[in-house]
Amino acid sequence: MDQVKALIFDVFGTTVDWRGSMIRHTARFGLPEETADLWRDQYQPQLETVRSGRRPWVNLDVLHRIGLDIVLAELGIDLPDRYRRTLVKAWHALDPWPDVVAGLTHLKESHIIAPCSNGHIAQSVNLAKYAGLPWDAILGAELAHAYKPDPAVYRASADALGLAYDEVCMVAAHNDDLHAARAAGLRTAFVPRPTEDSEPDSDWDIVATTFAELAP
């Protein structure tokens, strides 16, 4: 890891607690707690419509809105459009895990730090402002017009920083994310989270329990 110059981070689940945050946001509109999980269940199927070519590139706000409409229809809930738009924007305001802000601030002293998220640039910027995430840059899916685990997402992030792929380490609480990053040539670091993968399933370059432990 001595040659690593940048750490790029998965966001939903790894950096921020999407589930607790969205349970809180959906409760404001009287929606049942299960709404957050059902909505998240729509995440990968909607991403796949873009990855497969069935839908041209659209950003995550568009896909979140489609997923929300499906879930509300399944629950038999008729929510006004303005409330649906507000709920989609709630994905721009998610709470960080307790170790994240201090951990990122420390890592920033020695490394470039940036998100490598399926969220688009506007969402990532708004989320950073809300959660106090001290990124050096905003990277990820929108640069590549592709969604993880497409290797183009990881490589576009490294290319944007002018770094070789093995000079960049992907940090995630999802083993599948790290498998894809490794296949794209990046280094890998696993940090478990209570709502995501709890154990590493491979010999990742780093296995840590908090962001603070990623520091050299």
Give the topology.
Elements: E1 6-9, H1 18-27, H2 34-41, H3 43-51, H4 60-75, H5 81-89, H6 100-107, E2 112-117, H7 121-131, E3 139-140, H8 141-144, H9 151-160, E4 168-172, H10 175-183, E5 187-190, E6 206-207
Parallel strand pairs: 1-2, 1-4, 2-3, 4-5, 5-6
Helix pairs in contact: 1-2, 2-4, 4-5
Salient structural properties:
single chain; 216 residues; alpha/beta; Rossmann fold; DNA polymerase, domain 1; 6-stranded parallel β-sheet; 10 helices
CATH superfamily of the largest domain: HAD superfamily/HAD-like
Overall form: globular
Low-confidence stretches: none
Strand order within the widest sheet? 3-2-1-4-5-6
Second CATH tier, the architecture of the largest domain: 3-Layer(aba) Sandwich
Integer count of domains: 2
How far apart are the first and last residues' alpha carbons, in Å?
9 Å
Order of helices and strands: EHHHHHHEHEHHEHEE
Strand residues, percent? 5-15%
CATH domain topology of the largest domain: Rossmann fold
User: Compute the gyration radius: what is it?
Assistant: 17 Å
Characterize the largest beta sheet: strand count, sense, and whether it forms a barrel.
6 strands, parallel
Q: Mean pLDDT, as a whole number?
A: 97
What is this entry, summarized?
InterPro entries: 2-HAD, HAD-like_sf, HAD-SF_hydro_IA, HAD_sf, PGP-like_dom2, S-2-haloacid_dehalogenase. With 216 residues, the chain is of the alpha/beta class.
What does this structure look like?
By secondary structure, the chain is of the alpha/beta class. The chain has two domains: 133 residues, HAD superfamily/HAD-like (Rossmann fold, 3-Layer(aba) Sandwich); 75 residues, Orthogonal Bundle (DNA polymerase, domain 1). Helix content is 44%, strand content 11%. The chain contains ten helices and six strands. The protein has a six-stranded parallel β-sheet. Helix 7 links the parallel strand 2 and strand 3. The relative contact order is 0.18. The mean pLDDT is 97.
